[in-house]
């Protein structure tokens, strides 16, 4: 498992392509990437009925592949720690449930021992499948990794946080776990499928306002929980203005009071939207010590390290050679739409059928497209952010990984 | 605005059909319905700059239509109060924002007075449209009605709660607001569109577990927050069993401790699922005093009165005479699927083109279908619950209501 060098383009030809560029807004690249083969050791159940896992067991492995992008903020420390740690957390979490994963249906008891004869029926009724254990392992791995980062940063006196976008290919499925504003999409000849959702102060407004409603002390009297179309000022006092609160998807009007003039909990629009005036994402790893400038107000209670996991059933797809998953940090998606990326992907792969390095060349090309250099068209604006891109061909994955 | 008699079939021929049946599981029908024309008084802005709404203003009305179903539990009191109250709350909420609703774009200030020249730009950037004010009014009306019910029940020494499903036709759109497990669907010749989501302990598991995680005292040490495939017992102690917590969509295994043997916060499957062993819904009105049997544990903190609002842009549909919205309490949907209802609707309306009462006959027929009598086919099981059905033809609505 490799944490990749920061500012170079790193390539594993044929299997997939990776491109990273440092926008030089900071000395170190705040984007980090990691990838590699995932080997999950399977242990046999103990023979004695109450025996726990054997610590020494036949060496049998379930293998998969792992790709991860981490977009750091407040320095690269959290992103580097995440790139060095998350895959270990995930392997540990998967190894803890692997016997359930390889069963036709996860057993109620991991030991396989049946306590109640209708246990399989209860598991069936809840619709629990092997893939739910992988989803649970990813969710738990993010939490575990976040705890490790918190401890490591505190111990070393460092600060910072990062987003995390992870793809895991396992048993014929691709799992995409996302916490932050990176994005993964599937690009096929006739299809674009979005494999992740972004978690920003805007997309998570209701959850964030709800927390501030339950725990008003988190705002220390410095912020207003309510959303208005813009920050209010003295002239608005006493007027009825558009607003919404935690329970509302719609809008209403309220008479402006003095407390409404405080700085908004969520402020700004689109890429400028900030949580507590500080952070552009609402999920990610790290940031345990982060406070609003010159205050004691902590960001962490509003930040979640919980990813959303999407499952792509690769085995159910009739794959073509040019079917790829594109994973990238927000630097790419800020300047290129899903449709623009898909267009670039399709035309590049069609034009470069014979090039054995075409997937890494494609990742490189996508990044160059964010820099105002157009290798493949005249689309797109210029990104001033770090940009990292993985291009994962599903076809060769399918051949290469082999599942269990 | 009429609260309808409880156990009779009530019909407003041509405009729409309503059927209600008392399953006689209780003396009074716990299902209640209300419907009628919604008249929203428009007031002119005051002439003097800081003048508030004129209390006497030119009588100008924005009209719409209102249909509502309330499925009571713990007695009919809350459902009756809701049927008598919610439309007044909604009218008041709509009247408070009507000037914003009729504007091309809702103004930042309800007075229309501009404080900042780029205010329209901010409103535009947030994407706030007239329909967002109706959604906000519905959300606020549910909250207001819930407060009224809480006060009235307490004052009269009564108890109970109810679900609420409301449809409002206004300015060429149909708004469907739902809190509970009733359902509304659009049935057209080639389309079934679900217009509401159900809110049950199962569909809201994560929200409910999250609240218990934040406020463990709400469970008073009597319940476990965790979900297991079945209730655990002594034999499971020390074993590793399937579970999930508030942050998980997937499943994992945990070693069973004594506290895991407590009664689960959410228990049972499907129609049998209960919140705190007590309630089958997680949203609705009332239940302010409801406690878990023989304990002091309150249900209300876990219950929300907030509806989810769906907007159907009726004006954008090329309507046919047989396009209808079917609203019904869970008694119908427990025994008939959306597809079965759509099949019954389509064949009945086709077979009864000339009948001027066909929409009310259809509502009656759907209800009879839940009673094991098949007027239209051999589909469906038998419902032992109260059942209420509205059939709303969109075509005649379109002609009949006329918007503003």
Automatic annotation (TrEMBL), chains A, B:
- Molecular function (GO) terms listed? [pyruvate dehydrogenase (acetyl-transferring)]-phosphatase activity
Is Signal included in the keywords of this UniProt record? Answer: yes
Kindly state which keywords UniProt assigns to this record, in alphabetical order.
Signal
Q: Do you know which PROSITE patterns this protein is assigned to? A: PPM_2
Locate the PPM-type phosphatase domain: which residues? 44-394
Q: Which GO terms describe its cellular component?
A: mitochondrion
Look up the signal peptide feature and give its range.
1-23
Q: Which domain of life is it from?
A: Eukaryota
Q: What is the designated name of this protein?
A: Ppm1m protein
What organism does this protein naturally occur in? Answer: Phodopus roborovskii (Roborovski's desert hamster)
